[in-house]
Amino acid sequence: QVQLVESGGGSVQAGGSLRLSCVASGYIGNYCTGWFRQAPGSQREGVVVMQKGSDDGGTYADSVKGRFTVSRDNAKNTLYLQMNNLKPEDTATYYCAATRTGSCLLYQYVMDYWGKGTLVTVSS
């Protein structure tokens, strides 16, 4: 079992940037890891997932391609999400998630472990 703790959320104006971090309680290099988000009144949606054994690169939601970048530092047990050119529609609580056994998909129900989330607010 792994515990996940997100940080780095905050308020930013449209066009700005934020970097989210997710620190795991153990080694996550052999986990599928990802970021999901949930806006008020909406379902949780996948932002990006990263395959086991990968240090960078991932499968991104179309809405964030070219603006968000995921990376992972296995030595620090940390997953990152660099978010650039933020838009008001990116406003949501962002969650870090992981699974060792599920398929690595942009689908919340395959993930076994979740952080508590960090809030990102983008104003126009």
Structural class: mainly beta
The largest pleated sheet is described as:
7 strands, mixed
Q: What pattern of helices and strands is seen along the backbone? A: EEEEEEEEEEE
Radius of gyration from the alpha-carbon trace, in angstroms: 13 Å
CA-CA gap between termini: 40 Å
- Round the mean pLDDT to the nearest integer and report it: 95
Counting H and I runs of at least 4 residues, what is the number of helices? 0
Helix content: under 10%
Low-confidence spans: none
Strand residue percentage = over 45%
Number of strands: 11
User: Looking at the structure, what is the overall shape?
Assistant: globular
Architecture overview:
With 124 residues, the chain is mainly β. Helices cover 0% and strands 47% of the residues. It has no helices and eleven strands. It has strands spanning 4-7, 10-13, 18-24, 32-38, 45-50, 59-60, 68-73, 78-83, 92-99, 113-114, 118-123. The strands form two sheets. Strands 2, 4, 5, 6, 9, 10 and 11 form a seven-stranded mixed beta sheet that branches. It has a four-stranded antiparallel beta sheet with strand order 1-3-8-7, with no helix packed on it. Strand 4 and strand 5 form a beta hairpin. The radius of gyration is 13 Å and the shape is globular.
